[in-house]
Protein backbone atom coordinates (compact mmCIF):
# COMPACT_ATOMS: atom_id res chain seq x y z
CA UNK A 1 0.00 0.00 0.00
CA UNK A 2 1.19 3.49 -0.82
CA UNK A 3 1.55 5.26 2.54
CA UNK A 4 1.44 8.75 1.00
CA UNK A 5 -1.94 10.46 0.54
CA UNK A 6 -3.00 13.69 -1.10
CA UNK A 7 -6.33 15.13 0.07
CA UNK A 8 -7.95 17.51 -2.42
CA UNK A 9 -10.73 19.76 -1.09
CA UNK A 10 -13.10 21.09 -3.75
CA UNK A 11 -16.43 22.86 -3.84
CA UNK A 12 -19.11 21.37 -6.04
CA UNK A 13 -19.12 23.41 -9.25
CA UNK A 14 -22.48 25.13 -8.97
CA UNK A 15 -23.09 28.50 -10.66
CA UNK A 16 -23.39 31.23 -8.02
CA UNK A 17 -21.91 29.04 -5.26
CA UNK A 18 -18.22 29.05 -6.22
CA UNK A 19 -15.64 31.85 -6.05
CA UNK A 20 -18.13 34.21 -4.43
CA UNK A 21 -15.53 36.89 -3.62
CA UNK A 22 -14.45 36.84 -7.25
CA UNK A 23 -18.07 36.88 -8.42
CA UNK A 24 -18.67 40.08 -6.47
CA UNK A 25 -16.51 41.98 -8.99
CA UNK A 26 -16.55 39.92 -12.22
CA UNK A 27 -19.99 38.31 -11.97
CA UNK A 28 -21.07 34.73 -11.19
CA UNK A 29 -20.79 33.41 -14.77
CA UNK A 30 -17.17 34.48 -15.18
CA UNK A 31 -16.33 33.33 -11.65
CA UNK A 32 -17.78 29.90 -12.49
CA UNK A 33 -15.61 29.73 -15.63
CA UNK A 34 -12.52 30.62 -13.58
CA UNK A 35 -13.36 27.89 -11.08
CA UNK A 36 -13.59 25.36 -13.91
CA UNK A 37 -10.11 26.45 -15.06
CA UNK A 38 -8.80 25.98 -11.51
CA UNK A 39 -10.37 22.51 -11.20
CA UNK A 40 -8.77 21.48 -14.50
CA UNK A 41 -5.39 22.80 -13.32
CA UNK A 42 -5.73 20.89 -10.04
CA UNK A 43 -6.43 17.72 -12.01
CA UNK A 44 -3.46 18.29 -14.34
CA UNK A 45 -0.90 18.72 -11.53
CA UNK A 46 -2.18 15.80 -9.42
CA UNK A 47 -3.25 13.03 -11.81
CA UNK A 48 0.25 11.58 -12.36
CA UNK A 49 1.43 12.11 -8.78
CA UNK A 50 2.71 8.75 -7.41
CA UNK A 51 0.58 8.89 -4.24
CA UNK A 52 -2.97 7.90 -3.31
CA UNK A 53 -5.45 10.71 -3.96
CA UNK A 54 -8.83 11.44 -2.39
CA UNK A 55 -11.10 14.26 -3.54
CA UNK A 56 -13.33 15.64 -0.79
CA UNK A 57 -16.40 17.44 -2.16
CA UNK A 58 -18.27 20.16 -0.25
CA UNK A 59 -21.77 18.71 -0.69
CA UNK A 60 -21.95 15.59 -2.87
CA UNK A 61 -19.68 13.47 -5.05
CA UNK A 62 -19.99 14.22 -8.74
CA UNK A 63 -18.91 12.91 -12.12
CA UNK A 64 -16.07 15.13 -13.27
CA UNK A 65 -12.37 15.12 -14.18
CA UNK A 66 -11.43 13.30 -10.97
CA UNK A 67 -12.20 9.75 -12.06
CA UNK A 68 -11.46 6.37 -10.49
CA UNK A 69 -9.08 4.60 -10.27
CA UNK A 70 -6.86 7.69 -10.10
CA UNK A 71 -8.97 9.37 -7.44
CA UNK A 72 -11.19 8.19 -4.60
CA UNK A 73 -14.14 10.40 -3.62
CA UNK A 74 -15.61 11.45 -0.28
CA UNK A 75 -17.82 14.20 1.10
CA UNK A 76 -16.50 16.78 3.58
CA UNK A 77 -17.94 16.66 7.06
CA UNK A 78 -17.78 19.31 9.79
CA UNK A 79 -19.04 22.78 10.68
CA UNK A 80 -16.13 24.92 9.45
CA UNK A 81 -13.06 24.45 7.26
CA UNK A 82 -10.86 23.50 10.20
CA UNK A 83 -13.22 20.78 11.38
CA UNK A 84 -13.64 19.43 7.84
CA UNK A 85 -9.87 19.27 7.28
CA UNK A 86 -9.26 17.69 10.69
CA UNK A 87 -11.81 14.95 9.97
CA UNK A 88 -10.23 14.23 6.58
CA UNK A 89 -6.75 13.94 8.16
CA UNK A 90 -8.12 11.78 10.99
CA UNK A 91 -9.69 9.41 8.45
CA UNK A 92 -6.45 9.28 6.48
CA UNK A 93 -4.38 8.25 9.50
CA UNK A 94 -7.07 5.78 10.62
CA UNK A 95 -6.76 4.21 7.14
CA UNK A 96 -3.04 3.68 7.69
CA UNK A 97 -1.49 6.51 5.70
CA UNK A 98 1.76 7.91 7.14
CA UNK A 99 2.38 11.08 5.12
CA UNK A 100 -0.69 13.16 4.33
CA UNK A 101 -0.95 16.51 2.51
CA UNK A 102 -4.04 18.58 1.76
CA UNK A 103 -4.63 21.15 -0.97
CA UNK A 104 -7.62 23.07 -2.26
CA UNK A 105 -8.43 23.92 -5.85
CA UNK A 106 -7.71 27.66 -5.75
CA UNK A 107 -4.06 27.85 -6.79
CA UNK A 108 -3.23 27.97 -10.50
CA UNK A 109 0.50 28.37 -9.72
CA UNK A 110 0.68 24.96 -8.01
CA UNK A 111 2.80 22.42 -9.91
CA UNK A 112 3.43 18.70 -9.75
CA UNK A 113 7.04 19.47 -8.78
CA UNK A 114 5.95 21.51 -5.74
CA UNK A 115 3.66 18.66 -4.64
CA UNK A 116 6.56 16.21 -4.95
CA UNK A 117 8.68 18.64 -2.89
CA UNK A 118 5.98 18.66 -0.21
CA UNK A 119 6.11 14.88 0.24
CA UNK A 120 9.93 14.88 0.15
CA UNK A 121 10.10 17.55 2.85
CA UNK A 122 7.51 15.68 4.91
CA UNK A 123 9.86 12.69 5.11
CA UNK A 124 12.31 14.85 7.10
CA UNK A 125 9.93 17.17 8.97
CA UNK A 126 6.83 16.89 11.17
CA UNK A 127 4.84 19.46 9.20
CA UNK A 128 5.07 21.01 5.75
CA UNK A 129 3.24 24.20 4.74
CA UNK A 130 2.77 25.98 1.42
CA UNK A 131 2.31 29.66 2.29
CA UNK A 132 -0.22 31.63 0.26
CA UNK A 133 0.34 35.27 -0.61
CA UNK A 134 -2.87 36.27 1.21
CA UNK A 135 -1.66 35.06 4.62
CA UNK A 136 -3.21 31.59 4.47
CA UNK A 137 -1.76 28.41 3.00
CA UNK A 138 -2.35 26.37 -0.15
CA UNK A 139 -0.94 23.14 1.29
CA UNK A 140 -0.62 21.55 4.71
CA UNK A 141 1.07 18.22 5.38
CA UNK A 142 1.72 16.13 8.48
CA UNK A 143 2.62 12.62 9.64
CA UNK A 144 0.23 12.46 12.59
CA UNK A 145 -2.88 14.37 13.57
CA UNK A 146 -2.27 17.70 15.31
CA UNK A 147 -5.73 19.07 16.23
CA UNK A 148 -4.39 22.47 17.34
CA UNK A 149 -3.63 23.31 13.71
CA UNK A 150 -7.34 23.17 12.90
CA UNK A 151 -8.91 25.02 15.82
CA UNK A 152 -9.12 28.67 16.85
CA UNK A 153 -8.54 30.02 13.33
CA UNK A 154 -10.29 32.84 11.50
CA UNK A 155 -10.43 30.98 8.20
CA UNK A 156 -10.00 32.97 4.96
CA UNK A 157 -8.07 35.74 6.74
CA UNK A 158 -4.40 36.71 6.77
CA UNK A 159 -3.98 35.38 10.33
CA UNK A 160 -4.26 31.71 9.32
CA UNK A 161 -0.62 31.14 8.37
CA UNK A 162 1.00 32.94 11.35
CA UNK A 163 -1.43 31.29 13.78
CA UNK A 164 -0.69 27.86 12.28
CA UNK A 165 3.08 28.43 12.48
CA UNK A 166 2.66 29.47 16.12
CA UNK A 167 0.81 26.19 16.81
CA UNK A 168 3.60 24.19 15.17
CA UNK A 169 6.22 26.02 17.27
CA UNK A 170 4.22 25.53 20.48
CA UNK A 171 3.97 21.81 19.71
CA UNK A 172 7.75 21.63 19.34
CA UNK A 173 7.45 20.32 15.77
CA UNK A 174 9.80 20.80 12.85
CA UNK A 175 8.30 22.57 9.84
CA UNK A 176 9.36 23.00 6.22
CA UNK A 177 7.99 25.74 3.99
CA UNK A 178 7.30 25.50 0.27
CA UNK A 179 7.46 28.42 -2.21
CA UNK A 180 4.87 31.14 -1.62
CA UNK A 181 2.05 31.02 -4.19
CA UNK A 182 -1.18 32.93 -4.86
CA UNK A 183 -4.68 31.57 -4.30
CA UNK A 184 -7.20 32.92 -6.81
CA UNK A 185 -9.82 34.52 -4.58
CA UNK A 186 -10.14 38.08 -5.87
CA UNK A 187 -9.93 39.85 -9.23
CA UNK A 188 -6.31 40.93 -8.67
CA UNK A 189 -5.31 37.25 -8.38
CA UNK A 190 -6.42 36.51 -11.96
CA UNK A 191 -2.99 37.66 -13.16
CA UNK A 192 -1.67 34.22 -12.15
CA UNK A 193 -3.87 32.51 -14.78
CA UNK A 194 -2.71 32.75 -18.44
CA UNK A 195 -4.85 35.29 -20.24
CA UNK A 196 -5.74 33.01 -23.17
CA UNK A 197 -7.49 30.65 -20.73
CA UNK A 198 -9.68 33.44 -19.36
CA UNK A 199 -11.15 34.47 -22.72
Chart the SSEs and their pairings.
Elements: E1 4-10, H1 20-26, H2 28-46, E2 52-57, E3 72-75, H3 81-94, E4 99-103, H4 112-124, E5 127-131, E6 137-142, H5 160-170, E7 175-177, H6 195-198
Parallel strand pairs: 1-2, 1-4, 2-3, 5-7
Antiparallel strand pairs: 4-6, 5-6
Protein name: Glycosyltransferase
Pfam family, one: DUF2064
Beta-strand proportion? 15-25%
CATH class: Alpha Beta
User: What gross morphology would you assign?
Assistant: globular
Gyration radius, in Å? 16 Å
Percent helix: 25-40%
CATH architectural label: Alpha-Beta Complex
Order of strands across the widest beta sheet? 3-2-1-4-6-5-7
Describe the structure.
This is Glycosyltransferase. InterPro entries: Nucleotide-diphossugar_trans, Trfase_1_rSAM/seldom-assoc. It comes from Adhaeribacter pallidiroseus. With 199 residues, the protein is α/β, with parallel strands linked by helices. It has one domain: Spore Coat Polysaccharide Biosynthesis Protein SpsA, Chain A (Alpha-Beta Complex). Helices cover 34% and strands 18% of the residues. The protein has helices at residues 20-26, 28-46, 81-94, 112-124, 160-170, 195-198; strands at 4-10, 52-57, 72-75, 99-103, 127-131, 137-142, 175-177. A seven-stranded mixed β-sheet has the order 3-2-1-4-6-5-7, sandwiched between helices. Strand 5 and strand 6 form a beta hairpin. Helix 1 (20-26) packs across helix 2. It is globular and about 45 Å long. The mean pLDDT is 95.
Amino acid sequence: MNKKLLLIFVKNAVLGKVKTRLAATIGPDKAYEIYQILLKRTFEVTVALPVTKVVYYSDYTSEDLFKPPYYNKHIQSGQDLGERMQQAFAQAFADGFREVCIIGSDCYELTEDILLQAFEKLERNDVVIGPAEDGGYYLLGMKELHPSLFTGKNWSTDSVLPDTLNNVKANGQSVALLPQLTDVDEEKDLSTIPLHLQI
